[in-house]
Amino acid sequence: MVSSLLAVTALEPLTLVSPLQTQYYATQLFNGLMLGMTLVLVSLGLTLIFGLLGVINFAHGDILLVGTYLAWTIQAQTGSFLLAIGAAILGTFVLGVVLERTLLRYTYGRYNALLQLLLTFGIAEFLRGGVMLVWGQSGKNFPNPSWAQGSIDLVLFSYPLYRTLVIVAGAVLIAALYLFLNRTDMGLLIRAGTQDREMVDALGIDVSRIYLVVFGIGAALAGTAGALIGPVRAAYPTLGIELLIPAFVVVVVGGLGSFRGTIIAGLLIGELQVLTGMVYAQASEVIVFVFMAVILLVRPRGLFGEEGVIE
């Protein structure tokens, strides 16, 4: 992807410094890229759900948390990380479908924004409490899969193999989602529904089915991100909220409902957090809000806010 090429290009000046400095700076650049890919996956789920359903989903981070713990459990029981990823995707998809069908479907409509916020906040608290009840309040060590141990040589430096695979997996999933939205019948219906829900309904298309699929996909994206980031961050009860806050910033900076904006903003904010942490660790969490404020001063609708949703 373009982001990978930019990261490699950025390494050229590092040839002027010592090998240890090269390793350090290059590692941080790729750590930012890995964090950015994770934020993109989380934020795309938020973008899909908001774009079609108009729901700002505060439970999204704790759906991610469920995905992390499901993956940890399956890997601990079977030793298979791929099976763990599959369980996280399927489990969070089903969770999203159940939440949409039993709770959220009754809140749709322009006058129910406050109800949706309160409901998704309550769901978040319920899911987090459920995780702590089932798995305990202490964190769980989430080891890298045995086949992704060690490092890989990347021209001027070496980088952990598992983190490299997270970057690649993120790029593949983003490309797959783009193709799904633009090359499949269901994807085209989703895009049409985000732009004119009433017209799609008037054509006799079951809009409720589209809503169900979208919420399930959005939840599965969060669960996938949670499973992928588990071996990097470990599994602990506040992981979801820690990733949800910058993910909301990504959605706002990119432009509400913009697919391209979400990708670009996610990668920028991932790099910004990591590179700021190199200089002043305590500022790494605050800098994303400063960045958001600057962007909104210049472009009140975000980087690509003028586009239609899911474009």
Automatic annotation (TrEMBL):
GO cellular component: plasma membrane
Main localization category: membrane
Places the protein is found: Cell membrane
UniProt membrane topology term: Multi-pass membrane protein
Bilayer-crossing regions: 29-50, 80-99, 111-135, 161-181, 210-232, 244-270, 277-298
Annotated keywords: Amino-acid transport, Cell membrane, Membrane, Transmembrane, Transmembrane helix, Transport
Any GO BP: amino acid transport
Entries under InterPro entries matching the protein: ABC_transp_permease (IPR001851), BCAA_transport_permease (IPR052157)
Family the UniProt entry places it in: Belongs to the binding-protein-dependent transport system permease family. LivHM subfamily.
PANTHER family: ABC TRANSPORTER ATP-BINDING PROTEIN, BRANCHED-CHAIN AMINO ACID TRANSPORT SYSTEM PERMEASE PROTEIN LIVH
Protein name according to UniProt: Branched-chain amino acid ABC transporter permease
Source organism per UniProt: Halomarina ordinaria
